[in-house]
Design brief:
The complex is a heterodimer of chains A (233) and B (170). Chain A has 6 helices and 2 strands; from the N terminus they run ββαααααα. Chain A is mainly alpha-helical and 233 residues long. In chain A, α3 packs antiparallel against α6. Chain B has 170 residues and is mainly alpha-helical. In chain B, α1 crosses α2. The interface between A and B is large, with 52 and 39 residues.
């Protein structure tokens, strides 16, 4: 049984830079999503067929989610937030394929939460000006709160990243342990580890499907709320 | 070379993942969000245009209908007038025909009266002549043969006329 839970290095360059399975799996997911998108939106007509309706429902769902949590005036963020949601759902469910979920790696979750962090503050500065941003973000409600506000702002991306990472990695570790346990128990008196076939499905349903979709939703919702809150300061 | 990274460890992969995600956003924008949103917008515009068009057409139809209804009403009024005129003319013509017929009837009646009067007079005269002859004949036989014919005829005719005028005319 593999007891290493870190990401596997796939390619290592001579200067010490390496590419892990996280990045490779992300590439696979990207290719998959782009291919599905192209298939769904090929030959679009005014009167939609089945696959076009699916694409429209998906985009409509994302757009209504952005509209309801960020406001109708921020619908232009739909492509980013929609992509985030779709990518996270697929990435979190990626564990079901037997491959490592990209979100079970801090490098992925921190990459996304840093993007959220940058968006929160760059849009806030763009909207309110530098002074408005400083006043609204750090000196609110009163100036002495600045140190606490600073920690709070820095904690936002950290908590986002670790929440997602922890949930998905925890699920992955539990599933690995479960497979190991079921395999070792039943192999001692049965030639075929038959219980490895059915029992893990229940746990996959909870740790991968339920927690995965839920965490994707939470991450996206929090990103939307933080970004729009930053703009409204 | 180490095969596994640590479970909680950062590496250049965080940069790769940022780039990957931004590329994915761009790709999905190009292949999913932009085309679908454009299509939804296009459909919205088409439907709005169609609805406008339909409303316009409906208004036009309504106007046409009102126009035609008015025309039909006008036509009915006109038809009534024509019918009334035709009836009036027909009655006039009938009156004319009746008047004409009555005139001709009177004329014919008058002619028949004249004709019958003349016939009667002719018959009377003829009868008178033949009676005169007969009486003369008879009287001649009775009185004898030496009677002046001319004088006798005058006497007989006078007698018959005095008697006959009263008798024949009744």
């Amino acid at each position: 049984m593999n007891t290493e839970f870190g990401a596997h290095k796939i390619i290592e360059f001579s200067n010490g830079v390496f590419i892990t399975e996280t990045v490779i799996n992300t590439w696979i997911i990207m290719a998959l999503l782009v291919i599905v998108s192209i298939i769904l939106t090929r030959n679009m007509k005014l009167i939609p067929d089945g696959k076009q309706s699916a694409a429209e429902i998906l985009v409509g769902l994302m757009s209504s989610l952005v509209g309801s949590s960020m406001g109708k005036d921020k619908l232009r963020y739909t492509p980013y937030m929609g992509t985030l949601m779709i990518y996270l759902v697929v990435a979190n469910l990626w564990g079901l394929t037997g491959l490592r979920a990209p979100t079970a790696d801090l490098n992925t979750t921190f990459a996304l939460s840093l993007l959220t962090f940058v968006m929160i503050h760059s849009f806030s500065i763009k909207k309110n000006g530098v002074w408005g941003w400083v006043k609204g973000t750090f000196l609110s409600p009163i100036a002495p709160m600045a140190p606490l506000n600073l920690i709070s702002e820095l904690a936002t991306p950290v908590s986002l990243a670790f929440r997602l990472f922890g949930n998905i990695t925890g699920g992955m570790i539990i599933m690995t342990l479960l497979y190991g346990a079921l395999g070792s128990i039943f192999s001692s008196f049965l030639p075929i580890p038959i219980f490895m076939a059915g029992i893990p499905a229940v746990f996959h349903g909870y740790f991968d499907v339920f927690a995965g979709v839920l965490q994707a939703f939470i991450f996206t919702m929090l990103t939307m709320v933080f970004v729009s809150m930053g703009m409204d300061d | 070379m180490e095969v596994y990274t640590g479970l909680v460890s950062f590496s250049w992969n965080i940069v790769f993942q940022v780039i990957n995600f931004l590329i994915l956003v761009a790709l999905l924008y190009k292949f999913l969000f932009n085309p679908v949103q454009k299509m939804l917008e296009k459909r919205k515009n088409t439907i709005a245009a169609d609805l406008n068009n339909a409303a316009e057409k409906s208004a036009q139809a309504e106007a046409l209908k009102a126009d035609y209804e008015k025309k039909i009403k006008d036509i009915n009024v006109e038809a009534d007038a024509i019918r009334r005129e035709a009836r009036r003319q027909g009655e006039e013509r009938a009156q004319e025909i009746i008047t004409d017929a009555r005139g001709r009837y009177d004329e014919i009646l008058q002619k028949a009266q004249v004709e019958s009067d003349r016939e009667r007079r002719n018959a009377y005269n003829e009868l008178k002549d033949s009676i005169t002859d007969m009486v003369l004949d008879a009287a001649g036989k009775v009185i004898g043969e030496n009677m002046d014919d001319e004088l006798n005829e005058k006497l007989v005719v006078k007698f018959i006329e005095e008697a006959g005028d009263v008798k024949w005319q009744n």
